[in-house]
Amino acid sequence: MPLPKDTQPKASHYINGAYVEDTGGTPFDVIYPGTGEVIGKVHAATPAVIDAALEAARAAQPAWAAMSGTERGRILRRAADIIRERNHELSVLETCDTGKPLSETLVADATSAADALEYFGGLAGTLTGEHIQLPDGDFVYTRREALGVCVGLGAWNYPTQIAAWKGAPALACGNAMIFKPSETTPLCALKVAEILTEAGAPPGIFNVVQGMGEVGSALVTDPRVAKVSLTGSVPTGRKVYAAAADGMKYVTMELGGKSPLVIFDDADLESAVSAAINGNFYSTGQICSNGTRVFVQKGIKEKFLARLAERTASATLGDPLDEATNLGPMVSAAQREIVLRYIETGKAEGARMVFGGKAIEGDGFWIEPAIFADVTDDMAIAREEIFGPVMSVLDFDTEEEVLARANDTEFGLSAGVFTRDITRAHRMAAGFRAGSTWINTYNLTPVEAPFGGSKMSGVGRENSRAAIEHFSERKSVYVSMNPTEAPF
Ligand SMILES: NC(=O)c1ccc[n+]([C@@H]2O[C@H](COP(=O)([O-])OP(=O)(O)OC[C@H]3O[C@@H](n4cnc5c(N)ncnc54)[C@H](O)[C@@H]3O)[C@@H](O)[C@H]2O)c1
């Protein structure tokens, strides 16, 4: 399929309801991972651009917060409708930005953004405080108030979805947002901003600025910012959380993982294999919540591995814009290098390569999906986040043993269990130290369910009503119905 001609954005940034350019900022290329072609160029935000975005957001936010929630919600829901109408075009852009196959982006990216805008648009009119009765007629009421200007920092794997998962709840609560996409995938968030304007969002409510870590850092440390929501790696999370703490700002941290997927002997084998495939190879393994440590009970180990290898061999790698393709390239040459190094490490550590794992030569950042068996808990490939299509299969004997091993990690993003034993399934779900868990499926993240991590995987939750708590604060108002007394 030919690449679309219009991938170059109208300008690098989107501020105060319009595209803004400042060629004084460091230029960087937008690279299509399918072929390695340069498909656009954007400039990192200069201090003047960062200041303009902060000023626009600060100026616009009070009037936005003063609107009724129902009015704000109507705008978000209109944006959701526009996104659904343009799903094809937005999915093609997401594929160009990330390299993820169109067969995925058509169902998982713009549509997920629309879900978030629709869901939080629906909630916006329902946000209320409470009334607390006290003795002698006194009472307290609480007001749920917006935080002010919020900053969103995005990773490169889901650029449209991340912009909306942060923007929708922030805006529903009456905040303004400045979103900085990953420098690897700068295109999609601009479209979200453009569509919000078209849907009626006042200028300044959702702004996009481009750049690397320094631009993110300038936003995080600015005193005009009340909250920072990051989707990224643990090392970046540490820095951003510390910088935000200095200004006593609210944070949401959606970070990395090394999540366990536990498959018992009694599991439905085909479903378990599907979950292992989805939880390791969907988006070419570039998903934070992936179940990259697949614990398989010894009784079904060889059967599981054989079926897994057979089904993985039927993956269709090819032109990401061809809907028949179901496995795309890595997002960048650098990420492919990281993954290939881990594959070499796995071999050197003595893990058994059951399938794939080789770089595919030619244009673009292609790699075969890799399956390792006989992986042990101490191996680097079982301990560190790889963020690519590398599955580690580990064996286990008992429930007690596997739960302890599953939790023996610094991360705590997600976990899954496959079993037909209903009480064991719930015991495992309760025992996992992770924010999102699944029983007999993996990686489903509907907007209605809270999503986020425990331990080093993060702080706070996205999606669901829980996100409202993270984008608003409660003010209490004490009302006296009695004369005020004093000791003298
Ligand atoms: N938990 C989740 O919801 C989730 C979802 C997707 C990805 N991730 C994680 O993201 C990582 C991959 O994405 P990535 O490589 O883009 O992450 P990254 O940590 O390198 O970058 C994330 C964002 O932070 C910005 N940034 C970097 N340094 C900064 C600083 N000092 N101050 C402010 N901003 C800074 C980057 O420019 C980028 O926009 C993986 O670890 C993955 O697990 C987590």
Automatic annotation (TrEMBL):
SUPFAM superfamilies: ALDH-like. The active site is at E254. It is an enzyme of class 1 (oxidoreductase). GO terms for molecular function: betaine-aldehyde dehydrogenase (NAD+) activity; metal ion binding. The keyword Nucleus does not apply. Keywords: Metal-binding, NAD, Oxidation, Oxidoreductase, Potassium. Residues 20-477 form the Aldehyde dehydrogenase domain. Gene3D superfamilies: Aldehyde Dehydrogenase, Chain A, domain 1, Aldehyde Dehydrogenase, Chain A, domain 2. One of its GO terms (biological process) is glycine betaine biosynthetic process from choline. Its EC number is 1.2.1.8. PANTHER family: ALDEHYDE DEHYDROGENASE-RELATED. Belongs to the aldehyde dehydrogenase family. NCBIfam families: BADH, PRK13252.1. This is Betaine-aldehyde dehydrogenase. It comes from Pelagovum pacificum.
